[in-house]
Amino acid sequence: MAAKVLNIEVGKRIVKICVSEKKGKNYTVSDSFIFPTPEGSVLDGQVISEVTLGDKLMGELSNRNIKANEVYFSASSTKIATREVTMPAVKDDQIKSIVETNASDYLPIDVSRYALDAILLERTDEECRVLVVAVPNIIIESYIALADYTGLVIKAIDFGGNSTYQVLKNVSGEGVSMYVNVDTDSSSVTFVEDGRLLLQRFLPVGGDDMISRYMMHKEMEDREFLQALEALNETSADIAPTVHAMRKKNDDDHESDEAVVEEDASAYGVESDSDPLPEGGADDSGYGDSGDETGEAPEAPAEAPEEAPAPAPDPWGDEPVREVHSVKDDFPDLDDQLTRIVGGIIRSVDFFGGSYTDKQIEKIILTGSCGHLRGLKTRLFEYLGADTYWLEEVKEIKSLANSVDDIAVFINCLGSRVAPLDLLPADYKARTGKKKKGGINGDNFGIITVALCALVALALSGYMIGMNLYKKSQLDKVNAQIDQLAYAEKEYQDYVLYKSGDTDLQAFVDGSITHNKDAVAFLEEMESKMPSEITVLTANFSNDGVSLNITVPDFEEAANVIRQFRSFESLEVIDVSAIAKSTDGESGGSTASFSLSARYPVVVETTTAPETTTEAQAE
Length: 619
Description:
The chain is of the alpha+beta class and about 625 residues long. It folds into four domains: about 1-170 and about 410-440, 2-Layer Sandwich (Nucleotidyltransferase, domain 5), CATH 3.30.420.380; about 175-240 and about 290-300 and about 310-395, ATPase, nucleotide binding domain (Nucleotidyltransferase, domain 5); about 445-500; about 515-600, General secretion pathway protein M, EpsM (Gyrase A, domain 2). The protein is built from 20 helices and 20 strands. It has helices at about 50-65, 90-100, 105, 135-150, 160-170, 210-220, 225-230, 245, 255-265, 325-330, 340-355, 375-385, 400, 410-415, 425-430, 445-485, 490-510, 515-530, 555-565, 615-619, and strands at about 5-10, 15-25, 25-35, 40-45, 45, 70-75, 80-90, 115-125, 125-135, 155-160, 175-180, 185-195, 195-205, 360-365, 385-390, 535-540, 545-550, 575, 580-585, 590-600. The strands form five sheets. The protein has a five-stranded mixed β-sheet with strand order 3-2-1-6-10. The protein has a five-stranded mixed β-sheet with strand order 13-12-11-14-15, sandwiched between helices. Strands 16, 17, 18, 19 and 20 form a five-stranded antiparallel β-sheet that branches. A hairpin with a 2-residue loop joins strand 12 (about 185-195) and strand 13 (about 195-205). Helix 1 (about 50-65) packs across helix 4 (about 135-150) and helix 6 crosses helix 7. It is flat. The chain starts with a strand and ends with a helix.
């Protein structure tokens, strides 16, 4: 039986957990739940207090009798840096080493403080398109501290953007799909076409502003955060049945509108307004779309009963769900709180349009714990004009959902196990790598551990007794040799003093030799031979030679520059690093960068015998 593992996404407000196991090539989820993050334990993706969060986590797992001891984390933070780059076509196992070598050229960061990896986006015969990801070491270390405190073993720490993409790339569909993942702390916008990631943007704003304002308005306490989120959630029964009805609501020809709306509604698998809607407000196809901006439920047809539907059970906690139909009246500035989220999404769409002028967004799909915020779906449709759905409304996602009740909320948890990044430090992998894959989840784990410890203790005791006797005899021999060689101490100290003086003298002599003339010759030759397109980013001169960081427009120009350097008379040995090609996402231009190290020629001084004068010969 496959071992069960934990998939955890830690946020400032909520913690999401799935329990998954692998069956063949697929993953199944046996349990999923959410609990509020203890106050002050998490800040911008970093675990501040592993004790507070760890105690809460272990309590939640114990209450549900979950014994899995291995975990995949999905981390999201505004401190995580990403950059799309293009490099020459190399093998998959060579991409990470190239990224680590040229990271300082890709990202304006101190690479020693980050864990680096890359997501392969596209490969051709000539080049690879990858997304470079840099996660601060302090975030990685905070997750390791949490795992050590709770007794869990980390299998991988994935980047939230990669977790989302690994799940969504398998969702089929024609054209460009825009996935908007809105969580409490932050949001992301992912553009995918036929399983290929075109662009991914991250926004430092989520649903927390709107939820917190609502909680202040209703005088709710922090522990009621999940109840406030549920009260602000919107369902398909709260909005108009089709987007086409909203497009034509201001048309003067009402009869013509009814015919068009009925025809379009049937095309989307939704019944027209002339017949009562099925229970829940939409059919099983799940493609019912947004209605008017207010987020209020449409009027029921004349033949439909006026009885209000019963409130749905609360998946977030034990308290009853607040009546969502009254939220708009109780919270008049509800729509104003969506401005920051919608504004960031629209700017991402503008950036995508500037980068891919020949592509058009076919549909917008909302995911995340705050993807159902009231008015968000309608707002995006009105501003962007593309059909807008919630993730659970997409037919293709049903095969991925398995037993997860709300896949849109747990999408990053599920994706963290599919193809996670390699961000764990080597020392942590070394001390946990010998553990059995999947761990031991049986009730006999404690018995087996105690028995093994007893056997190891007995073996070590016998070994240590024998080693103690052997070491004692060796120590006696060494002490005897020390007594015999005591006279040599003074001679050794005299030698050390002499050697120190000799070293200082040699350093003074060597310091008087400079290579200024070699540097001048190199600069003059470079000025006369180098093309105008070359850009020297940095130049470091030493007594032995020079090292340069160079950028040119393309690979052909790079080859020309290297060829010219090899013809320099002022240089003797030239070493060139791998050439990296990078693309500027805003301007669309590309450059080729490489490093060059060279040494000055070594001048061999020859000694000739003086000529003998005629008088000397005669004498």
